[in-house]
Amino acid sequence: MHEHPADIAVALQAMPPEESWRILRQAGQRRVAAIFSYLDHACQMQLAMIVPRADLAAIVTDMQSDDRADLYHELSPEQREALMPALAQAEREDIRRLTAYREGTAGAIMTSDYAALPSDISATQALRLLRREAPAKETIYRAYVIDDERRLIGAVRLEDIITAPHRATIADIMDTNLHAVRVHDDEEAAARKIARYDIIALPVIDDQDQLVGIITHDDALDVMEAEATEDFHRVATITDLDSSVSRATVPILYRARISWLMILVFGNIFSGAGIAHFEDTIAAHLALMFFLPILIASGGNAGSQSSTLMVRALATGDIALSDWGKVFARELAVAVLLGLSMAAAIAVIGIFRGGREIALVIALSMILIVIVGSLIGMLLPFILSRFRMDPATASTPLVTSIADATGVLIYFSIARLVLAMP
Amino acid sequence: MHEHPADIAVALQAMPPEESWRILRQAGQRRVAAIFSYLDHACQMQLAMIVPRADLAAIVTDMQSDDRADLYHELSPEQREALMPALAQAEREDIRRLTAYREGTAGAIMTSDYAALPSDISATQALRLLRREAPAKETIYRAYVIDDERRLIGAVRLEDIITAPHRATIADIMDTNLHAVRVHDDEEAAARKIARYDIIALPVIDDQDQLVGIITHDDALDVMEAEATEDFHRVATITDLDSSVSRATVPILYRARISWLMILVFGNIFSGAGIAHFEDTIAAHLALMFFLPILIASGGNAGSQSSTLMVRALATGDIALSDWGKVFARELAVAVLLGLSMAAAIAVIGIFRGGREIALVIALSMILIVIVGSLIGMLLPFILSRFRMDPATASTPLVTSIADATGVLIYFSIARLVLAMP
Q: ipTM of the predicted structure?
């Protein structure tokens, strides 16, 4: 077995749990824990049910502290009770501490396997210490300098330790310009800091400024990937899909999809009511119906472009809430240009299909509908953000529904006005 | 100036270039290069135009090789000609080599500042070598072992070097189970490997298996972030937005948005034509119009949920092209359940609004429309992927347009059948 644990985990996941345990148990103890960590949660659960308690305790002991805490989160109360007494006290306490933080916080994804150093030892002594501690730590490439009360006072790179002058102390070479997060900070904020400063690990401190853990670069990648997926789903009205798409069952998918679809069924009654309100106008001029789908779809399409641009830019920090005024002015300019271009296109179709009066109605409607749709799409994420809701709730279907209803009103109002109909 | 270069860069970007250069030049030479690397491309360009040639050459020399190559990409032919003679030959060749790779490939984002070791030296000798080379390398935490022809034969972690037994050679402690990419591989494939194996850097080899560069964990974060943003935009029909959203100008945004909006204007003619085709049915029963927006929007909404789930799952590797059969069967089951639930909801509205016959028509239509919309949304990304197009081209508006046209046909066909109208 010279494969990477991640590759072995993929192969094991495809097997029944009994068979995968038969293979897994043949690996060395530390390697078993490494492979186990790469299995997905569903598979870990299945194994946890059949693996003998002593073996499971050995695996859990050897797992990295953050992976271990994740596993504990998933276990049933009975499984937890069975497992905990089989662990040493240090592991039990570590699990209790890490699982105390709410999901989605820095505390919930940090690991307590970090390397800490006092500031008054020499670089040579530090190297000796790190060398000894390396196997038990998630990384020694960045070690954290703490004072007597475990308060974080600096960070030092292994590279700087090994290239330090002979007599240098850790205090001489440590970096005191610290980038740290607090345990209750959002995990995404932590990941963004790692991305922004290109660092290998970020220290996590508690309310007393004491060092309690680190978040490593690979966690940052996972967090940013998961957050992007969540936003993708939310923009398409898929909520709280806790499983991977490949492993999601029919009931899981149904539950993740039905709520917003139902809300939108009722939301779209407004468009229907709008049409019903103009029934006389429509009856007098059935040709108007030909252009209805094009016009209202255009408002929705322009609006969903705007909302998606904003949702993503707000999520990545490219745009801040306070930028809304500047963005609004620019959006208005873009929307006017888009509306004019699309009005020209539809007017040509209109002349052939309904004559000059119809062409005028649909061209005017197009300009207004695209402008209004774009502005709704742009503003909605800002408004949601302002009220501390996730901007991604400004889903494409929601923006489209609002734009649709507005589009119906704009179109038939203009038609009634220009065509001077009842 | 004890701030992180990334923070200083943000502050400088808000100033006019002359002023930002006045501040920047006061930093030490290596620090100037670090800060300069964190500036966005637009700002780097502005500075490149006003910074004296000798200073610019010094900055470029001190930049990391991948950042330097990116900058060169952006320069105008005149700027390149002015800059290149001011550089030492080693830098000139390095730039030429790195900029030869097509954008989006591993070669285009790799850096040539990697640490390489022969296999026959001792760990102690290796440590001495790395210590000396550290300042010029992007990372020494992973060094790459090459043979006499520079072919990659292993990788070794600094951690293993410093904890190695006294007499161990690099060959004894190196990892020969290599994860590498080729220069022409997709940058996203490289980023996914880094994420999958939780590694700090990934070696890049050429067609002769020679080591030519490395891609580091922070590049992987940037690539995955950029790819997610591109997919977000594409799903909302925004194409090739080369600028950040915050810095995009009105013409840039207009160009990125207009093409698909225009295509969809013409695409939605099909829905209009469908409605026109059923003009008699509509005229005989205007109440049908009330439900039209709800029904066709429901098909589009269900379809865009399905397509988004597939686009993202295909992008992250959660689902493979070959899974389409399994996914199709599951999608059908979910869509039937969704359709039934939504049909029940709309039937209630239908009874109050149009009587039992209308309720039957719209309930039947809802079931069929949701199923067809979902299946279109699910299949389109697979079909595009099969023909080697980006699955994200299955944008929400495209899926919605197709679902709209299908919805019109389904609805009025059923109405004509059930209501036995002309």
A: 0.85
